[in-house]
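Quick start: read one record
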Amino acid sequence: MTTDLETRMATFVEAVTTAMGLSVTVTCTAIEDGTRVTVDGDEGELLLRRKGAGLDALQHIVNAVFRGEHTQGHIVVDCLDYRKGKDNELKQTAALLAERARTTGETQEIGPLNPYARRLVHLVVAEDPTVSSESVGDAFLKTVLISANES
């Protein structure tokens, strides 16, 4: 990841949030599987209303603009650690459902989830070789099925 690309990503997010009338600070940091764009400042709470719909939209826009240039992993846009908390909650839920699928033998489902959330669930399930997951549905939001592997 080049510092130039991180700078341009931060500048872009600052321009979008400024156009929305928000006064926030934006930083970019490299993470294990990509780049985290962090939005901080009290006015950032406006992005978190309606279950983070504004934050999801901002992430979608940033990914669309920089997808061609950002070749190393994923771009995650977070505001006031909202996504970090939601990600941890989703990972715990996925681990619990994987455990339930393994112990009961019944397929568990979670969703509907956007592509980012589905990826997190699939990564958690992939850590356990006794269970597997698959996305079902034909829309942007899909359900993830978690089931025990046949022995």
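The longest strand covers residues 25-31.
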